[in-house]
Design a protein that fits this description.
single chain; about 450 residues; alpha/beta; Rossmann fold; Ribosomal Protein S5, domain 2; 3 domains; nine-stranded mixed beta sheet; seven-stranded mixed beta sheet; 13 helices; 21 strands; globular
Length: about 450
């Protein structure tokens, strides 16, 4: 009998090598190679017989009538999904351990099961008793919510075909394995084959499926990158350990807007949705304090007001520190260089700390003006008007560039009682019909300085 061939595969990116390597030449990760056998395994997908064979059809004859979306009863969750669940869609959700992924899906499935739809919760990490204990803590009573503790792919598929549920969740995809694949659970081959079989099952039967994925130390979903391309929607559940707020962010959505977010608050009875996150993030904002500025960021289709805090203090180090939380470190370094060059600010010997209050991450250029205003306020020890909102992109020449969706940002600021918006002059000229709040257009940092100080 021929000896089975072996190779070494990187468990981070899937790179193959004939011998063990300490560092992967593709993703530069250390100690990620594991030995795998190369055998011709029977394809699980070929044995499923999911539906009949379809013939190619002209595109103009294909029926495009969409089935109604299924509302899960949690408004923030439905918003991120684009208005509800699409039958047959596959959603991948990732996040740090203990962030609340299982709690969120358990609450959503319990709400859906109240409508008479059968939901199957498959867990490869917890026993049914542990899931029952969590459900009791959350106050969940749902007879149509079925719980299964299983890690075998073939047995899961058999249960799905027998029960025929309306929704399915796999917690987590890294624990599912198929005996036809000669590798350990969680390996590249196992994750690829297991997820591929489940996706084929979902597409053929119209089964809405959630896949929970582990994340690496960098925050990316573990396993092959191909997994994110195969699914319809990719959600990330984010949050800081010291904060009670959680942000559900869509980075890919074939049925809705990308970069849409939903805000939740973790409490003893589970996750509670936050319908007005701007008011929550600004609730404890200090007034009449230098270094605090309010900016308006667009997350998907929602404008959110957040507080940017900056602290500028004398440095006693050879290289002053530039520490940022919630904003891009390189972007802050660029804006500090613009302040020194164009406005004559002496920041070369100053430690600069920038923080986004509430544990939110913002990465759009529209918050540049707020970062500059907060740093300048702390450096000059001048208090900014607490009823003023800043937004605008800052260029390397010190100019203030226009941004998108300015009108929705202004309306959000007006709802929360802000009296003035400092924004790019190009946007202000197009919104002269808005009288409240007052609009102040600036075209350069010099104009902004005259308004602020």
């Amino acid at each position: 009998m021929a000896k089975p061939k072996t190779f070494y595969a990187c468990q981070s990116c899937g790179y193959r090598a004939p011998k063990w390597l300490g560092k992967c030449p593709d993703c530069n990760e250390w100690n990620t190679f594991a030995e795998e056998r190369l055998e011709r395994a029977t394809s699980v997908r070929g044995e499923l017989s999911l539906g009949t064979k379809e013939d190619p059809a002209p595109i103009h004859e294909i029926n495009t009538a969409e089935e109604g979306r299924l509302q899960c009863g949690i408004g923030e969750f439905d918003r991120v999904l684009g208005g509800g669940l699409v039958p047959g869609s596959v959603i991948l959700i990732g996040g740090d351990p203990g962030i609340g992924k299982s709690t969120l899906l358990l609450q959503a499935f319990a709400a859906i099961s109240q409508k008479g739809l059968t939901c199957l919760y498959v867990s490869g990490e917890e026993s049914p008793r542990q899931i029952k204990m969590r459900a009791e803590r959350l106050g969940i009573v749902a007879p149509n919510l079925l719980v299964l503790s299983e890690t075998s792919l073939e047995r899961i598929i058999e249960h799905v075909k027998h029960i025929q549920p309306g929704l399915l969740v796999i917690d987590s995809i890294q624990t599912i394995f198929s005996p036809t694949i000669p590798s350990a659970p969680g390996s590249i081959a196992q994750v690829r084959e297991s997820s591929g079989s489940i996706i084929v099952l979902a597409k053929k039967t119209g089964l809405t499926t959630f896949l929970i994925g582990h994340v690496t130390k960098d925050g990316a979903i573990a396993g092959p990158r191909l997994l994110e391309h195969m699914v319809d929607t990719v959600l990330y559940f984010e949050g800081e350990r010291g904060h009670s707020f959680r942000v559900l962010r869509a980075v890919k959505n074939r049925f809705g807007s990308t970069n849409e977010i939903g805000v939740f608050e973790m409490k003893e009875a589970g996750l509670k949705e936050v319908s007005n996150p701007s008011e929550i993030f600004l609730m404890e904002r200090p007034l009449q304090v230098p270094g605090s500025a309010v900016v308006c960021s667009i997350e998907g289709t929602r404008p959110i007001l957040i507080e940017l805090q900056a602290l500028v203090s004398r440095s006693f180090l050879a290289v002053p520190r530039r520490t940022t939380i919630g904003v891009d470190h390189n972007r802050v370094a660029l804006l500090v260089a613009v302040l020194e060059k164009k406005m004559g600010a002496k920041l070369f010997d100053q430690d600069i700390f920038v923080n986004v209050a509430g544990g939110v991450h913002v990465d759009e250029p529209a918050v540049d003006l707020g970062i500059v205003a907060a740093i300048a306020s702390s450096s000059r020890e001048n208090v900014l008007d607490p009823k003023t909102v800043f937004f605008g992109e800052v260029g390397l020449a010190g100019e203030i560039r226009g941004i998108s969706q300015a009108e929705s940002r202004i309306k959000e600021a007006g709802k929360l009682g802000f009296e003035r918006c400092i924004l790019p002059a190009s946007n202000s000229a197009q919104l002269e019909h808005i009288k409240n709040p007052k609009l102040t257009g600036v075209s350069s940092l010099n104009d902004c300085w005259k308004v602020m100080f």
